[in-house]
Write a structure and sequence with these properties.
This protein has two domains: about 30 residues, no CATH class; about 230 residues, no CATH class. Helices cover about 60% and strands about 0% of the residues. The protein is built from 15 helices and no strands. The protein starts with 6 loop residues before the first helix and ends in a 12-residue tail after the last helix. The structure holds zinc ion (ZN) (2 copies). The site of one zinc ion has 5 residues, from helix 13.
Length: about 300
């Protein structure tokens, strides 16, 4: 809900004309409550969980069209029914946990000061806040994830997420309900420390989920733009974590690679890549007969 009733009032308050984006925001949000705006996240998450993995379903079913060479674990293939089952499980958890969590967490966004009014943040402000959110999330998630690989955490909670030893896009949010709640904390910590505008918050939640779907895609596409992000882990990096499974003491970080590097938990992965490179050199093949794609 905006503090102005008309665009003229907003113009007087800001001491300048509204930008095109601000006029759009005024028209869209002026009569909507902050709670209603916050709950947009539920719709965005539903659309992201449903639509973003869909091209990956097509790729998995049409591997013979040339996608096979990008599959990280080429020996594994999933039928459409298996992928649909994963989607149904994720949607059940969405209705029972993710949606209600969004509904009840609204007071905390008010407490930390996420604003909905004008002026809108600049692109620079949004980008810098998003970078901070990703870094805080990555660091906190690293330690929580590492804790979840302890005996108790793995057996009681994290085992569910590791049911997919060769992950797929739909499996990104596939986890025990308690894990969904626990990992909500790192996602919320960035906005709590550096509160921004509601639009930045929407973008943050959306981008984080899209990133998770990409890292669980099971495919390492050479054209993905995230390759240009410094220290970005990506699909190959997290796929290895799932491949090793419960015993994994490698690649805990959710987004970047530097935490694993600093704390020495990427040694298994680096050794694995070295072996694959060596195999590729020796065989002179593209690795089609191996268990893993060898770059
Ligand atoms: Zn794990
Ligand atoms: Zn995972």
């Amino acid at each position: 809900m905006l503090q102005f009733n008309t665009i003229e009032e907003a113009t007087t308050f800001l001491g300048r004309n509204l930008t095109r984006a601000e006029t759009w925001w005024f028209n869209y949000s002026a009569k909507k409550s902050d709670y209603y705006l916050y709950c947009h996240n539920i719709l965005f998450l539903f659309l992201i969980f449903t639509l973003v993995p869909l091209p990956l379903v097509f790729v998995e079913l049409m591997r013979s069209l040339g996608f096979n060479k990008y599959k990280i674990q080429p020996k594994v293939s999933l039928a459409s029914s298996e992928m649909f089952k994963c989607y149904k499980d994720v949607m059940r958890m969405f209705v029972l946990v993710v949606g209600p969590l969004q509904l009840v967490s609204y007071p905390s966004t008010k407490m930390i000061g996420i604003r909905t009014g004008l002026p809108l943040p600049s692109v620079w402000e949004m980008l810098s806040q998003l970078v901070v959110y990703f870094m805080i999330e990555d660091y906190t998630n690293y330690w929580i994830h590492r804790f979840l690989h302890g005996k108790w955490g793995y057996e009681k909670i994290h085992r569910v997420h590791h049911e997919y030893t060769a992950p797929i896009g739909f499996a990104a949010p596939y986890a025990h309900w308690l894990e969904i709640l626990i990992l909500g904390i790192p996602s919320f910590l960035g906005p709590a420390i550096v509160p921004g505008h509601m639009i930045t918050f929407w973008l943050w939640i959306a981008l984080r989920q899209i990133e998770a779907i990409e890292t669980h895609s099971g495919y390492d596409f050479p054209w993905t733009p995230t390759r240009f992000i410094p220290f970005y882990g990506g699909a190959d990096y997290h796929d290895y974590h799932h491949y090793v499974g419960g015993q994994s003491q490698s690649n805990f970080a959710s987004v970047f690679t530097y935490c694993d590097y600093i704390y020495g938990t990427d040694k298994g992965y680096r050794y694995h890549k070295k072996v694959l490179r060596k195999l590729k050199e020796e065989s002179g093949t593209n690795g089609a007969t191996q268990e893993f794609k060898s770059e």
